[in-house]
Design goal:
heterodimer, A: 152 residues, alpha/beta, Nucleotidyltransferase, domain 5, elongated, B: 178 residues
């Protein structure tokens, strides 16, 4: 005759494991989400001045951003006042250059040697907002348009 | 804190009845058992959620100590890469200091010689590993973790050194802006 026995599963060891794993995972969780901006550095063979006609250039100086695009007047955005306004002005200037060459996705950024890294990233973000996703950083060592690297 | 056994806890709960129970009002209800099922459910779901979030993140990126990355709207996930960190006072490759910034100011030219030498060592190691596996050498991409306040002149020199060393696939690590 079969007899039913009340089974009592001891959950304590499993709970001990959980108490160890959960805090460990919580502590090792990354609070900052790190992403990347992909670039492609030109090799010696491929490094050459960009000869596309309607590629806009953003010159970054300490007091202003200057957007230059063939066929359009230069736009100077003063680096004073509200950052949102500066961003809007820079984005609209880049969108205007994009409008005359819809297929173009390139932009050249020419920082000065003392331009801060976060300012360059900020300009890259503005260009991306304007639909210009491929960035070329121009060397500071020469005043001509020597492309040192190109972002994709 | 470790749980010895739920049985012991049950026994304690049996002994610590409420005043009404002591008066005999609920003496017929039997022993009180601690139900851990709901708690286990919560822990299981939490554990699965945490594990899934780790898997979904893909390659884990550890920020270089002393470097505050710039914020950006870039949304590309970081690839498995060699990390070049640029802090306020040093250039690091894989967490190891290869050059001091103060030394760089004294040197001329775009190429940073100590960084180029360290990259060459990494390239040799990669070549050996590729040879052991019988594969062609494919250089891993490089991720630059630069301090947000560094000058472009420094970034330019690091990029020039990377290009000179044959590392053409580079990404700039940024913190995703909300």
């Amino acid at each position: 005759m079969r007899r039913l026995v009340e089974a009592d599963i001891d959950l304590a060891p499993l709970m001990n494991v959980f108490f160890a794993i959960v805090p460990m995972l919580l502590l090792s969780a990354v609070s900052l989400q790190i992403t990347v901006i992909r670039l492609g550095l030109p090799s010696d063979a491929t490094a050459a001045p960009i000869e596309e006609i309607h590629v806009p250039t953003v010159r970054v100086a300490s007091e202003s951003f200057t957007v230059q695009c063939p066929g359009l007047p230069d736009v100077v955005v003063a680096r004073a006042g509200d950052a949102t306004t500066q961003r809007d002005l820079l984005c609209s200037a880049l969108r205007a250059s994009k409008a005359i060459a819809v297929d173009n996705q390139s932009v050249q950024i020419q920082p000065s040697s003392t331009t801060r890294y976060h300012e360059i990233v900020w300009v890259m973000d503005c260009a991306r907002d304007a639909g210009l996703t491929e960035t070329a950083l121009l060397s500071t060592g020469d005043s001509t348009d020597d492309s040192t690297n190109e972002g994709r | 804190m470790q749980l010895r056994s739920t049985r012991g806890l049950t026994r304690r709960l049996r002994g610590s009845r409420s005043p009404s129970a002591r008066l005999g009002q609920s003496a017929e209800r039997g022993p009180v058992t601690l139900r851990l099922n709901s708690f286990m459910d919560i822990l299981t779901i939490l554990l699965l959620f945490l594990l899934k979030s780790f898997v979904a993140e893909g390659e884990s990126v550890t920020p270089t100590p002393g470097v505050s990355l710039p914020y950006s709207a870039g949304r590309d996930t970081p690839p498995a890469s060699i990390v070049v960190g640029i802090s306020n006072d040093a250039i690091l490759l894989g967490g190891q200091t290869v050059s001091r910034i103060s030394d760089l100011h004294a040197s001329d030219g775009l190429i940073i010689a100590p960084l180029a030498a360290a990259l060459e060592q990494v390239r040799v190691q990669q070549a050996e590993q590729a040879q052991l596996r019988g594969e062609e050498l494919a250089l891993r991409p490089v991720s630059i973790q630069g301090d947000r306040d560094m000058e472009f002149m420094l970034l330019e020199r690091v990029m020039a050194t990377l290009a000179e060393s044959g590392y053409e696939t580079v990404s700039l690590a940024v913190v995703e802006a909300s």
